[in-house]
Design goal:
The structure holds two protein chains of two kinds. Chain A contains 13 helices and 13 strands. Chain A is of the alpha/beta class. Chain A has a domain of 207 residues: Rossmann fold. In chain A, a hairpin with a 3-residue loop joins strand 12 and strand 13. In chain A, helix 4 packs across helix 13 and helix 7 packs across helix 9. Chain A starts with a helix and ends with a helix. About 3% of the residues of chain A have low confidence. Chain B folds into two domains: 179 residues, no CATH class; 202 residues, no CATH class. Chain B is built from 18 helices and no strands. The longest helix of chain B is centred in the first third of the chain and has 38 residues. The chains are: A alpha/beta, B mainly alpha.
Chain lengths: 352, 469
């Protein structure tokens, strides 16, 4: 009887796995299931950065949270097209990750296009910001892909901190040495032409490796197992044990702070040496409260003025209406941010 | 606290453990369930617990007074007290802002300046469901269909029973209260059926409804940027979404209750296999349909006062049924639209169960009914009638193929196909529990399939559509 039951269960399991695999492939598009955020082919492997955005790419942005089929066109550098024709004044928006890449909105609604449209000055505006790329990487992208054709007259350094209080994000940068490419096994995996997240795979998923990404059932299962694993680690305190105590965390935070200060100072000096004006802006995020940013201001090095646009717009931007796809800017937000930036840029250019 | 959250699974596991430990102690078991139900509701907003407790105390007291009174006049007056309280609270929290806005719009359309501001009232989750449940008890006692319950705690549990507290099914006192009052036994069959329903319910909600929701939202949020074909597929997707969402919740609720030995009424009976609009309402949201029939349509006179009055009563019932869904004109129009369809069915002599026909005719009838239902869902889903008209015109005039259509067609067909295949199997066997009678391998394979799909897509923090009602 037991043998029969085991046999029946095994047969049922095989049928269920095959059925679920087929059904999930039909029901949930791969971009949504793997949370790749883009249609296929948007990423190309790269030795320096791990991956880059594919030049001349034409595809879609797709995310379960409000971005289902938004077309995107990348230029020959793999970036969103610069705004404006060749003009005597070049304005560069540097950094800001997927927020300033303006994930989820049409090309003409990106912040740099709004800036170009709204400014009274005769400018050409370019944005060097790729999803997942911090200030350090953005700077190197600028050096590699933009600088020869686009010597800026004004540089807006976009400092983005995610809402999480422990998210130091752009703080972990160091301008003096190129950052090593991300560890693929830990952060992402290339599945054909798709970069898929390794996040929450857990030790089972990581042990299985590449095949796990091919199967919806397998990937979904290990993803849940990974989630359970991290929750258990949180409850049992295993995460705290794995890092070598509070002392180590504090040391890392101090190191990160120092690196960030070096980065910001280095960026400012780099562009000042090239006769460009520099503006450092804390760009808004979807957190309702501005309180996350105020405590972070102490890490700004002396002598550098930072414009806290997040705080300024905290009451004007509604996290439910002005943001989409995991709190990225909706067109209403890019419009508002672009207008504020344009006004400030006009003031700076006017005083030259 | 959403059913589709890890927090709820932990909550239910703890409640169930306590429930089993208290198996032979009914009083403690009911008190524990009541506490858990209040905690479940308080997790959303503890302040609105006062409304549930208020309804509970008022209806419990009034029902006892009604029962004790022999004077018909006094009984009626007491009933009015209960109805005024319940419907007054519901009207204030659900319809006050809508009334103010509609009044202002009316004044402005008449050329007057209307300087009004809304009260910005938060709609307490589940208020439409538990209010109707409480009303049915008082009315049943008034009609002498039900003896008043002896203990307040039992009645409080009847009103607040957490599996069906926030989105139904709207239970009847005659059905649920006796189960609250007597000792319950958990049989092996309850556990098997309960688990099966929970798996199927989560599958409908988490896998089906939540997966098609993004594309539906996207098309409805940008109606001018999609072709008519895509708009149509999004509309079909919404039909799938709202059914999967609501029937999924109901099935999870029934499954959770069944695990504890409770029997909660069936709320959906394969609605998209209906062969005419009349049959649709015998398959969709049964607990509301029956409630409206027994506590509104029949007291209005039902079909006992002539043909014209019957149709008028039907329209009034469906009008209020639409308004029950939400304080907005599109819900009212949706209700009136379905009322008109029911009147048309009456005029065409479509009464009772549709007669047996050949398969092609049945398929045609189901398809036509589904199209009429889709028009209703269009009215239900839009934010204003202008948008409904634009989408309708777009579907009729711009029904062309585009690359984008693939990403709507495949998921929609997969979701609808999976649901309908299962329903056809149930329909053919005329058995809701057909899965439990299937061979062991088939039963296990289907349930494992559901579990693997649920695990595959994972829980997302998507609230149930009907919570807003």
């Amino acid at each position: 009887m037991l043998a029969k039951n085991i046999g029946a269960f095994a047969l049922a399991l095989i049928i269920a796995v095959i059925g679920a695999e087929i059904f999930l492939r039909l029901l949930v598009p791969v971009e949504i299931f793997q949370a790749t955020w883009f249609s296929r082919g948007v990423h190309t492997p790269n030795d320096k950065y791990g991956y880059v955005f594919t030049p001349d790419y034409e595809g879609m942005m797709r995310h379960a949270d409000g971005v289902w089929y938004e077309p995107i066109t990348l230029d020959g550098r793999g970036m969103r097209t610069a705004a404006g024709t060749d003009n005597p004044t070049n304005v560069l928006l540097l950094g800001g990750r997927s927020m300033m890449f303006c994930y989820g909105v049409a090309d003409e609604d990106t912040v740099h296009h709004v800036v170009e449209r709204e400014t009274q000055s005769d400018v050409r505006v370019d944005a060097v910001a790729w999803p997942g790329f911090n200030l350090n990487q953005s700077f190197h992208l600028y050096r590699d892909l933009v600088e020869p054709e686009f010597p800026p007259d004004l540089v807006v350094i976009c400092w983005y901190l995610p809402a999480a209080p422990v998210g130091w994000a752009d703080a972990h940068t160091d301008l003096t040495e190129p950052q090593e490419p991300p560890d693929a096994a830990e952060i992402f995996h290339f599945m054909d032409d798709l970069v898929v997240s390794s996040d929450r795979l857990g030790f089972v998923g990581r042990a299985i490796g590449a095949p796990v990404f091919r199967s919806r059932v397998l990937y979904g299962t290990v993803r849940q197992a990974g989630l359970a694993e991290s929750n258990i680690d949180l409850v049992t305190g295993a995460i705290r044990k794995r890092t070598s105590g509070r002392q180590d965390q504090r040391a890392r935070a101090e190191e990160g702070t120092e690196r960030f200060r070096t980065t910001l100072t280095g960026l400012r000096d780099y562009f000042l040496e090239r006769d460009a004006e520099v503006l450092v802006v804390v760009i808004p995020n979807g957190a309702r409260s501005a309180q996350w940013y105020d405590p972070m201001m102490w890490i700004v090095p002396e002598g550098i003025e930072v414009w806290n646009l997040h705080k300024e717009l905290a009451d004007s931007l509604d996290s439910r209406e002005d943001f989409l796809a995991n709190l990225h800017y909706a067109p209403s937000a890019t419009e508002l941010i672009g207008k504020r930036l344009a006004k400030r840029i006009d003031q700076m250019l006017g005083s030259r | 606290m959403l059913f589709n959250s890890v927090l709820f699974l932990g909550f239910f596991a703890a409640v169930y453990l306590l429930y089993v430990v208290l198996q032979r102690r009914l009083t403690l078991q009911n008190l524990m369930l009541l506490g858990a139900s209040y905690a479940f509701y308080a997790a959303w907003d503890y302040r609105f617990l006062a409304l549930i407790i208020g309804s509970t105390v008022v209806d419990f007291t009034v029902a006892r007074l009604i029962h004790a009174s022999e004077s018909q006049r006094k009984r009626k007056a007491l009933l009015m007290v209960s109805l005024t309280y319940d419907l007054g609270v519901l009207a204030f929290f659900k319809y006050a802002d809508f009334g103010i806005q509609s009044f202002a719009a009316l004044m402005e359309s008449l050329g007057f300046e209307a300087h009004v501001s809304t009260l910005r009232i938060i709609l307490p989750v589940g208020i439409s469901f538990y209010t109707f449940q409480a009303i049915s008890y008082t009315v049943d006692v008034y009609r002498r269909d039900k003896e008043p319950v002896k203990k307040l705690r039992d009645f409080a549990l009847y009103v607040a029973f957490f599996p069906q507290l926030v989105a139904g099914p709207i239970e009847r006192a005659t059905h649920l209260l006796p189960q609250v009052e007597r000792a319950r036994r958990i049989r092996m069959d309850d556990i098997r059926v309960g688990i099966a329903w929970i798996c199927l319910g989560y599958f409908k909600k988490v896998v089906i409804a939540d997966s098609v929701a993004p594309m539906v939202d996207s098309a409805f949020d940008n109606p001018n940027e999609v072709t008519g074909l895509v708009a149509f597929l999004a509309l079909v997707g919404f039909a799938v979404q709202i059914y999967g969402d609501f029937s999924g919740y109901s099935l999870i609720a029934r499954g959770l209750a069944r695990l504890m030995g409770f029997d909660i009424m069936q709320n959906f009976k394969r609605p998209y296999l209906a062969r005419n609009p009349r049959e649709f309402w015998r398959r969709w949201h049964l607990s509301l349909s029956f409630w409206l029939r027994d506590y509104l349509y029949k007291p209005l006179g039902g079909n006992r006062k002539g043909r014209v009055r019957t149709e008028v009563n039907l329209m009034i019932t469906m009008f209020l049924g639409g308004l029950w869904h939400g304080a907005a004109w599109n819900f009212v129009i949706w209700g009136v639209y379905h009322g008109a369809l029911l009147v048309a069915c009456n005029l065409l002599g479509m009464k009772g169960k549709p007669p047996k026909r050949s398969l092609p005719i049945v398929v045609l009838q189901i398809s036509v009914t589904f199209i009429f239902t889709l028009i209703g869902w269009l009215l239900f889903r839009v934010s204003d009638m202008g948008q409904a008209w634009d989408i309708f015109v777009n579907i009729l005039t711009n029904f062309v193929w585009s690359d984008e259509a693939w990403s709507y067609l495949v998921p929609t067909l997969a979701a609808l196909g999976a649901l309908q295949a299962y329903h056809i199997w149930q329909e053919a066997a005329d058995d809701e529990l057909v899965i439990m009678r299937a061979p062991r391998v088939v039963r296990w394979a289907i349930l494992l399939f559901c579990v693997l799909c649920i695990v595959g897509v994972g829980f997302r923090p998507a609230p149930f559509v009907y919570f807003q009602f």
